Amino acid sequence: MRRKGIFSLIIKIIISAVVLGIAAFLTPGFSISGGFGTLIIAAVVVGLLSYAAVEFIGVKASPFGAGASGFILTAAILYFTRYIVSGFSISFLGAILGALALGFVDFIIPGRRFK
Structural domain boundaries of the chain? Predict the structure, then answer.
């Protein structure tokens, strides 16, 4: 039973990495260097920051799921991730556009990335 939970977590992290990669590709001012490993690390960091936001603040970090507060929170999480993950480069404007891109990708690809 525990094996299923770990497998599910690995799949969610990989999907999150792909979504971040798509957002980085679509967004000016947002780039990820270092390959898929950097994407995986960034996905874990963004996931942990999103989880912390839900637990401590009570706001879901999703541009479409939580309105303006979710949009601002997603942009802030993306921006602060640049200080934690080497190879994750994003400008302030890139974080805002990246939050829009993540929201758009979340809208197209249903499912929960960080929960």
Answer: 2-108
